[in-house]
Write a structure and sequence with these properties.
This protein is mostly beta strands. About 0% of the residues lie in helices and about 50% in strands.
C-alpha cells in the first residue's frame, strides 16, 4: 500500500468491468443449453486461499476495519470504494467514512490525497463522503451502492440519517466519482427498517432494481437471535429515478430444501453475459449463542435472466465470499473485493469462471441461435487432458448449406481466450444466425465470446 499525493490520470487498461465483453455467451443454467447429453453445470467459488491483502488490519486497533462497497474500473486503475469504520474515534464523522483507493498493476493499492474532508486518523485524505451529523434512528452510515452511468455521471444510493424523519435511503450524485453532492438531506427516499440492499440498473426495464432485505413473521423461529420472531429474506423494489420507490415485494425466501435455521441476509446482484448473477448471503442462527447475532454464514450463487425471477441451481456450492462490490477483471482473472479478518482483501476466480459446463468422459450440447459477431470467436475453456469439437449448424440443428464440413477442434489447452480455428474450407460469416454444437471429452467450457 502506497499513499498518493495527487490523483494522477494514467491511461491504463489493466482492469475492466467483469461483464464488459461486447459479445459473450455464458452457460450459467440448464436453459442455456439445448439437447444436452452427458454434460453437467458446476458453479465455482472465489478462492480465498489465493487472496491478496490491500489494506491490512492493525492488531493494535481491533476496532478498525474496512468494508468494500464498490469497484469501478477507471483510467488510473480500479477504484475500490470502502467504508472505514472505527467507533473509538472521537469525531463522530470519522467513526464511519466512505473512502477510495486505486488498485494499480501488480496489486499496488494507492490512497489518493483528495483533501475533500479533514479527518483525525492521519495519512492521505482519501475520504469522499462523510455521514450526517444526526444520530440514526436505525442502522448507520453504510451500504453505498455506486453506479457509473456515463463518463461524467455517477450515482450513489446509501443509508444515513436525514435532518427530518427516520433513517433511510439517501441519494448523491457526482461528475467524477470523487466529489459527491447529496441531493436532499432533509428526508430519506425510503425508510423501511433495513439498511441492507444492493442496486443495479436494468437496461431492459429502464429502471433501477433494489434488492433489499425484509423481515417476515417467524413466530416459531427455531433459534432466536437478535431478531426473535422474525426471518430475514430478500425483496425487490423498482424506481425510475432513485427517489420514488415501489413497495417491497418478496422474491427469495428460504424453502424446504434450506436448513431449518436458514435466513437470507443479503443479496449482491450484478449483470453478466446477458444474465444477472447474485451472491446470496445465507445466515444461520447459532444454538450455542442464543439471542445474539450469529456469525454462521454461507454464500450461494443464484442466477436470473431478467433480475426478477431467480433460480438456485447451485445450493450446495459455496461461493467463497460476499461483498457489496461488483466483481472486476484484473490481470487475467476476475476478482472481488471483500472484508476479511486480515483486512481489505481481493479474492480471485477464473476470468468469467462463475459456472462451467463440463463432461468427464464425453458429452455434448447445442447453443441457442446467435448472430455471428465480427472478430474471431473465442472460448474460455479447459481441455488439457481432453478435447472440444465445435460444429456449425442452423436453427434446427442441421448442417448449414455451404458450411457442411466446417469444424473446429481444441485439445491440450487451458485458456480464457482460446481462438476457434475453423477447418474445412471457410468460416461462419458475420451477421449470419447460427448455432454451435459442442462435443466435450474430459473438458469444461465457461463461455463463448468474440475478439480480434
Amino acid at each position: 500500500m502506497k499513499p498518493l499525493r495527487c490523483l494522477a490520470v494514467i491511461l491504463w487498461s489493466g482492469a475492466t468491468l467483469a461483464s464488459a465483453a461486447p459479445f459473450r455467451m455464458a452457460f450459467l443454467e440448464e436453459s442455456d443449453l439445448c439437447e444436452a447429453r452427458g454434460v453437467r453445470l458446476a458453479a465455482h467459488g472465489f478462492v480465498r486461499e489465493a487472496g491478496r491483502v490491500l489494506l491490512p488490519s492493525d492488531p493494535s486497533r481491533p476496532s478498525l476495519w474496512f468494508a468494500p462497497v464498490a469497484a469501478i474500473p477507471s483510467e488510473e486503475g480500479v477504484r475500490l470504494y470502502y467504508q472505514r469504520i472505527d467507533k473509538t474515534l472521537e469525531p463522530y464523522a470519522d467513526q464511519r467514512a466512505l473512502c477510495v483507493g486505486i488498485l494499480k498493476p501488480d496489486f499496488e493499492f494507492a490512497l489518493p490525497d483528495l483533501s475533500l474532508y479533514s479527518h483525525s486518523w492521519g495519512g492521505p485524505g482519501n475520504t469522499v463522503l462523510q455521514r450526517s451529523p444526526h444520530k440514526p434512528t436505525w442502522g448507520g452510515f453504510n451500504v453505498f451502492q455506486i453506479l457509473q452511468e456515463g463518463p461524467v455521471l455517477y450515482r450513489m444510493l446509501y443509508w444515513d440519517q436525514p435532518e427530518q424523519g427516520e433513517a433511510g435511503g439517501m441519494v448523491a450524485d457526482s461528475t467524477d466519482g470523487l466529489s459527491w453532492r447529496k441531493r436532499d438531506e432533509t428526508r430519506a427516499v425510503f425508510t423501511e427498517h433495513n439498511d441492507a440492499f444492493s442496486l443495479v440498473y436494468s437496461q431492459e426495464l429502464k429502471e433501477y432494481l433494489l434488492y433489499q432485505t425484509f423481515l417476515e413473521d417467524w413466530p416459531d423461529k427455531p433459534v432466536e437471535d437478535n431478531l426473535p420472531k422474525w426471518r430475514r429474506a430478500i425483496s425487490i423494489r423498482h424506481s425510475k429515478d432513485l427517489v420514488t420507490w415501489s413497495a417491497q415485494e418478496p422474491i427469495l425466501v428460504p424453502d424446504a430444501q434450506d436448513a431449518p435455521t436458514c435466513e437470507f441476509y443479503l443479496m449482491k446482484v450484478f449483470p453478466f453475459a446477458g444474465h444477472y448473477l447474485g451472491l446470496l448471503m445465507k445466515y444461520y442462527g447459532d444454538p450455542l449463542n442464543p439471542k445474539k447475532h450469529s456469525a454462521l454464514y454461507r454464500y450461494e450463487l443464484v442466477v436470473s435472466r431478467d433480475g426478477l425471477a431467480w433460480q438456485r441451481p447451485y445450493r450446495e456450492t459455496d461461493a467463497g465470499t460476499w461483498t457489496y462490490a461488483d466483481p472486476f477483471d484484473y490481470q487475467g482473472k476476475t476478482w472481488v473485493a471483500a472484508y476479511d479478518k486480515a483486512g481489505l482483501c481481493v479474492f480471485p476466480i477464473r476470468s468469467g469462471g462463475y459456472v462451467s459446463c463440463g463432461a468427464h468422459d464425453a458429452g455434448s450440447f447445442l447453443t441457442h441461435p446467435f448472430t455471428v459477431p465480427s472478430g474471431t470467436l473465442r472460448l474460455n475453456a479447459e481441455c488439457q487432458e481432453g478435447s472440444i469439437e465445435i460444429e456449425v449448424v442452423d436453427a434446427r440443428g442441421l448442417p448449414l448449406p455451404g458450411l457442411e464440413g466446417i469444424r473446429a477442434a481444441l485439445s491440450g489447452a487451458d485458456g480464457i481466450d482460446l481462438p476457434v480455428a475453423w477447418k474445412g474450407g471457410g468460416s461462419p460469416p458475420p451477421g449470419q444466425e447460427v448455432r454451435l454444437r459442442l462435443t466435450l471429452k474430459n473438458a469444461r467450457v465457461y463461455s463463448l465470446h468474440a475478439g480480434e
